[in-house]
TrEMBL record:
Signal peptide: none
Any Pfam family: POR
All copies of domain Pyruvate/ketoisovalerate oxidoreductase catalytic, residue ranges: 11-186
NCBIfam families in the cross-refs: PRK06853.1-5
Species per Swiss-Prot/TrEMBL record: Desulfosporosinus orientis (strain ATCC 19365 / DSM 765 / NCIMB 8382 / VKM B-1628 / Singapore I) (Desulfotomaculum orientis)
Domain of life: Bacteria
GO MF terms held by the record: oxidoreductase activity, acting on the aldehyde or oxo group of donors
Keyword list, A-Z: Oxidoreductase
The protein, known as: 2-oxoacid:ferredoxin oxidoreductase, gamma subunit
Length: 189
């Protein structure tokens, strides 16, 4: 039976890179993998989503409503936006991180309060602060790899050679930092 992982965030957060690394690792482990990505207005800070499905045989890359085993949200408001895709017995990993949308920045609306509480009331929710952890590691840009680590641990995929995947797909000068970020993410869940 196929497993479904939904990664969501805002343009510029590295959501697509994280899903590509995940897909490569799953393929390396011998799974049939399908990936679908939607960039939206990602170049302008808009919503980005990536759907990764894997198993012995995967027919479609698309996750239907109520079909995701796990939703990993790089930004809090995106978790709420995509929550209806999570199975009732699924889980959400949400990064406690805010990126205000244009209507919020223009003062037309406020950033919604109580998002984490609302998520927790509906589905098993793990809240992490990947931004803080990435800054502690020395580079806020590795937040996406920290979140990839949470997927690996949450889905029981630790046996895959993630070090090889990172080494093969990340610029050499950033490999060690990204390997530390991956480990940090696995430790956070």
């Amino acid at each position: 039976m196929a497993k479904s992982i939904l990664l969501v965030g805002v343009g510029g957060q590295g959501t697509i890179l994280a899903s590509k690394l995940l897909t490569m690792g799953l393929m390396e482990a011998g799974f049939d993998v399908k990936m679908s990505e939607i960039h939206g207005m990602s170049q302008r800070g808009g919503s980005v989503s990536s759907q990764v499905r894997y198993g012995d045989k995967v027919e479609s890359p698309v996750i239907e409503l109520g079909g995701a085993d796990i939703l990993v949200s790089f930004e809090k408001m995106e978790a709420l936006r995509w929550l209806n895709y999570v199975k009732p017995e699924g889980k959400v990993v949400v990064n406690d991180y805010e990126i205000p949308s244009t209507p919020i920045l223009s003062g037309k609306v406020d950033y919604p309060a109580g998002i984490i509480e609302e998520l927790s009331g509906k589905v098993e929710t793990i809240t992490i602060d990947a931004g803080k952890r990435a800054t502690e590691l020395g580079n806020p840009k590795v937040m996406n790899v920290i979140l990839l680590g949470t997927i690996i641990k949450s889905m029981g995929l630790e046996a895959i050679n993630w070090e090889k995947i990172v080494r093969d797909n990340i610029k050499p000068q950033f490999v060690d930092l990204n390997l530390r970020a991956l480990q940090a993410g696995m430790y956070l869940v």
